[in-house]
Design a protein that fits this description.
By secondary structure, this protein is mainly beta. It has three domains: 106 residues, no CATH class; 115 residues, Sandwich (Jelly Rolls); 116 residues, Jelly Rolls (Sandwich), CATH 2.60.120.260. It is elongated. The chain starts with a helix and ends with a helix.
């Protein structure tokens, strides 16, 4: 059977495509076998050890299956972060009373609905104040019940600090009337108030062990610097700092993480990026939240200005679990593969039909990490990396085209 020009072209194209698909799994450095696949949908909870070997955006993660005939298939997945889910529902109300007596100033709100509330946000015209207040509830404005008392709200604004804490949180309460009693010598200039019902669905946090922690006082910059090294690179979303002092304090804080290090003639240099900044204070919980970031080394800078340094207690570093929601449609031996600095984010159709994914999913058992042997790469990689192979292919194509051109010219 004679081979036509078209036949040669298709053979060449097929050869190139096969070379490209061969070794898909070999493009990654590590794999873990997925055991216990019994349904179409499962979840894969990523172990901590994976994060030090993948890119920051987790783009180089794939699920490959090896069928009995050695064909390679890819299982699509969606990435999920098991963080807190917060929803706020604004509740309509109206201010019906604004009065005062020797106890302080009263603000009364009427809520026509029967829904419970647990949060009130206040905005005052004053920039500097430190007040205590009491929250009460009533159904008829005759009998009042205490919801919370001695609640502190605060605002400080000067050249050094710009801090405000005026959000009231309390147990869910259902009353027609709510009354605030603010213990103040001056009349609070209440500009805006908002009442809401906040629901928080807690995520799943991991507490990461700290390998080393070092605290020092930088007198020149008037800062407390805390260097933290974790056991391994992990995705961090939350840091809690406990302060042992019992006096009031309001200190600006900057939290950074190590992104790069390089050696110079004067020694090692380190490059840090800022994770978040805020105020460490004696009123709020000492939590700092930020977008999940894979890191191993942290630097916490507490700006003391002219104040004495704070007595630092324990520090907890946490992160939400990361999981893949995967679909398996064909029988095969499946592997979680990862570790490819040229990997790009996967795009799967299931992202458009997330509402059809079952709510309850069984977690797959993940095997031990195995290094992927680079078999066959010496054959396939030169087609794309070795210039000699590229030139050889180009010359072959030119000669093939030339030969067919001459043959067609002779026939004509």
């Amino acid at each position: 059977m004679k081979m036509t020009f078209k036949s040669y072209s298709w053979l060449l194209l097929l050869f190139l495509l096969c070379s490209n698909s061969f070794g898909q799994i070999n493009q990654y450095n590590y794999k873990r076998e997925l055991n216990g696949i019994s349904e179409q949908w499962h979840k894969v909870v990523l172990p901590n050890e994976v994060f030090g070997k993948v890119s920051q955006n987790l783009s180089d993660i794939r699920i490959y299956g090896i069928k009995e005939n050695n064909d390679t298939i890819e299982a699509p997945y969606l990435f999920r972060l098991t963080n807190d889910k917060v929803s706020n529902k604004d509740i309509a109300f109206k201010v019906i009373n604004d009065s005062w007596n020797d106890k302080g100033y009263y603000f009364t709100f009427e809520i026509p609905s029967t829904e419970p509330i647990n949060q009130i946000k206040l905005d005052f015209g004053q920039e500097n104040f430190d007040w205590r207040l009491k929250v009460e509830g009533s159904q008829n404005q005759k009998e009042w019940f205490t919801i919370t008392e001695n609640y502190r709200i605060l605002s400080i604004k000067n050249k050094i600090t710009d801090f405000q804490f005026t959000k009231l949180t309390f147990p869910r309460s259902k009353y027609r009337f709510f009354r605030l009693l603010i213990d103040s010598k001056e009349k609070p200039d209440l500009k805006v108030a908002s009442i809401s019902q906040q629901e928080i669905s807690k995520g799943f946090l991991r507490n990461y062990p700290i390998r080393n922690i070092n605290t020092k006082e930088n007198k020149q910059s008037k800062q407390t610097e805390i260097d933290i090294e974790l056991q391994s690179p992990v995705p961090v979303s939350k840091i809690k700092i406990d302060i042992l002092d019992t006096f009031d304090y309001y200190r600006p804080v900057t939290i950074k993480y190590l992104t790069d290090s390089f050696k110079t003639e004067k020694g090692w240099k380190y490059r840090y990026n800022t994770l978040t900044s805020g105020t460490l204070n004696s009123i709020e919980k000492k939590y700092f939240k930020f977008n999940s970031t894979t890191l191993q080394k942290l630097k916490i800078q507490i700006h003391n200005h002219d104040n004495q340094a704070l007595d630092i207690g324990s520090i907890n570093v946490n992160g939400y679990t990361h999981e893949l929601v995967a679909r398996f449609t064909e029988p095969a031996t499946y592997f979680l593969t990862y570790g490819n600095n040229k990997g790009v984010k996967a795009q799967y159709d299931i992202a458009q039909f997330a509402d059809k994914i079952p709510k309850k999913l069984t977690a797959i058992e993940i095997g031990n990490e195995m290094t992927i042997e680079k078999e066959g790469i010496s054959v396939t990689e030169p087609l794309f990396k070795n210039k000699n192979w590229l030139w050889a292919i180009m010359i072959f194509i030119i000669l093939l085209l030339g030969w067919f051109s001459l043959k067609m010219m002779r026939k004509s």
